[in-house]
Amino acid sequence: MLVLVGAGVAFLFLSGGSKITEGHYGSHAVGDKGNFDTLVKPSFDPAHAVKLAPYLPTPMCVVEKMLELADVDEKDIVYDLGCGDGRIVIAAALKYGAHGVGLDIFPQWIKKSRENARKAGVDAMVEFYLEDATKADISEATVVALYLLPESNDLLRPILEKQLKPGACVITHDYHIPGWSDKEICVDSLKDDLGKEHTVFVYRR
User: Fold this and answer.
1) Beta bridge partners of 7
2) Whole-model pTM?
3) How far is the C-alpha of 146 from the C-alpha of 144, rounded, in Å?
4) Counting Cβ atoms within 10 Å, is residue 107 exposed (0-12), middle (13-18) or buried (19+)?
5) Phi and psi at residue 62, in whole multiples of 5°?
């Protein structure tokens, strides 16, 4: 079981006219996928939202390495917290047949993720929502990916510990999860096309 938190800000918001739907991925507050005004709750206060990281896309070679080390397959449900353009869950669906959920705070990234999923032909296998990752229900995830700063990983750690089932896998890009040295099962490094080195940490819940 694995959870992915991707590059970017890993918290999201839901809007006023949202409704709760039960689907393959569990309960989500969603509205019309094309209408982002319906995805923001009136109670959401961006001035007090905790920003976990600036947006920085994960190079595709790192995405591929993360999914490989997570041993993703068609039985997995991959969550990407701070999904940006959706590349992690889209790649998981395309290459491994996995289902996935991407969360992000910015409507433009949710829109972009959905467009990218449609273009890749995997929009029936993945879902993207405006939602606060620190308040989201990720308990169904078998794979979670993170590309956040250590202090943000530390902030999410209690949520991961509380919600993820035993055996779930958490993979992080470049930054470790403080306090999880006993759960660390692998650390790997690679260089991208520009020669920059990246590190992938793999944890087992």
Assistant:
1) 147
2) 0.80
3) 7
4) middle
5) -75, -40
Instruction: Indicate left, alpha or beta for 130 from its phi (over 0: left) and psi (-120 to 50: alpha).
Output: beta
User: 161: how many CB neighbours lie within 10 A of its CB?
Assistant: 12
Pick out the chain residues at pLDDT < 50.
1-2, 7-34, 37-44
Task: Identify whether the C-beta of residue 68 lies closer than 8 Å to the C-beta of residue 44.
Answer: no
Could you tell me if 83 and 106 are in contact, meaning their C-beta atoms sit under 8 angstroms apart?
no
pLDDT of residue 6: 54
Query: How much is the pLDDT for 23?
Result: 38
Pairing relationship of beta strands 143-146 and 169-173 according to DSSP bridges: parallel
End-to-end Cα, the chain, rounded Å: 8
State how far the Cα of 12 lies from the Cα of 130, in Å rounded to an integer: 5
Rounded to a whole number of angstroms, the CA Rg of the chain reads: 15
Structural domains in the chain, sorted by start: 2-12+53-204 (3.40.50.150)
Q: Which residue has the tokens 């999201």?
A: 12
